[in-house]
Design goal:
about 280 residues, 5-stranded antiparallel sheet
Length: about 280
């Protein structure tokens, strides 16, 4: 659901609820040229969005969540509560205001701020990606966190550029680029490796080797599991074995759990080889 509270919102006097009087995300609009723009959330999905939020603990007064279909553009006022922790609504309102005021210049990063409840939007200054990575890694063991942050520092110090791409999933992408003014998408498309956090695969290290044929002798000395993954390679295997898309085109995926510690040295050697061949092209 796209930023349900970033539209026109007034606080209730009690401070325990929000009164929503306008929902542009759910309303058809007409621009200055007379072009009709469809709502970001189509009518067919609006009731589903509210039902999902209700499962998360939100309470909506003014609508019937048992309806098969609901057009929120026709609702004159919607009262929203979060009984288990009312101050959450204050936080959402603060982030929505900051989103509107600070969005310019950081649009891509903030486009789904309320979905992530990203408190960093309240900061005027840019946040160091190392701090963002550290926060996101907190469910992992201390040893796994240390290894990941070590890789981050190592390859930044070796001249790589990191960009954070958030489009449903989190992707910390690392690329070796000559121009550091590239967009996030450009860095992502040129990435050698990255850390991916998704609902489907969880925490993963994803490597996209481009020069593996140049250092076959080194590959032969890596841990067997890495040798097997490199030999298999990566690409689209959607049509193989009548399986659904496994996103193998993203790269060679290695789970970021404690099992990665046993092959950590091999991963560094592997990534060092990839980077060294790219650096020779400068």
């Amino acid at each position: 659901m796209n930023e349900p509270f970033s539209d026109s919102v007034d606080s209730a006097e009690s401070g325990n609820s929000l009164f929503i009087t306008e929902l542009p995300s759910c309303t058809t609009s007409i621009d200055e040229k007379g072009k009709i723009t469809k709502p970001n959330i189509p009518v067919s999905n609006q009731i589903l969005c509210l039902q999902f939020l209700a499962l998360c603990g939100f309470v909506f007064i003014g609508v019937d969540l048992e309806s098969k279909k609901l057009n929120l553009a026709e609702v004159q006022m919607l009262e929203v509560l979060y009984p288990s922790n009312p101050i959450l609504l204050t936080g959402l309102k603060a982030m929505s205001i900051a989103d509107m005021e600070l969005r310019e210049g950081r649009r891509f990063l903030n486009d789904r701020t309320l979905l992530r409840c990203d408190y960093r939007l309240l900061k005027a200054e840019t946040t160091d990606l190392a701090d963002v990575l550290k926060d996101i890694l907190h469910p992992l063991s201390e040893e796994a966190q240390n290894f990941i942050t070590k890789l981050h520092r190592r390859y930044i110090n070796m001249g790589m550029t990191c960009a954070l791409r958030m489009l449903g999933d989190f992707h910390f992408a690392y690329a070796f680029v000559k121009k550091h003014a590239l967009s996030t998408q450009d860095i992502y498309s040129r990435r050698i490796f990255g850390f991916s956090i998704s609902l489907k695969y969880g925490y993963c290290l994803v490597i996209r080797p481009k020069k593996a044929d140049k250092y076959a002798d080194v590959i032969g000395k890596l841990p067997l599991i890495l040798q097997e993954k490199i030999t298999k390679g990566y690409g689209c295997y959607k049509k193989l074995g009548n399986k659904s898309c496994q996103w193998d085109c993203q790269g060679i995926r290695i789970p970021l759990d404690d099992s990665i510690l046993a092959i950590s040295d091999g991963i560094e050697i592997w990534l060092d080889q990839e980077l060294s061949y790219l650096q020779r092209r400068r």
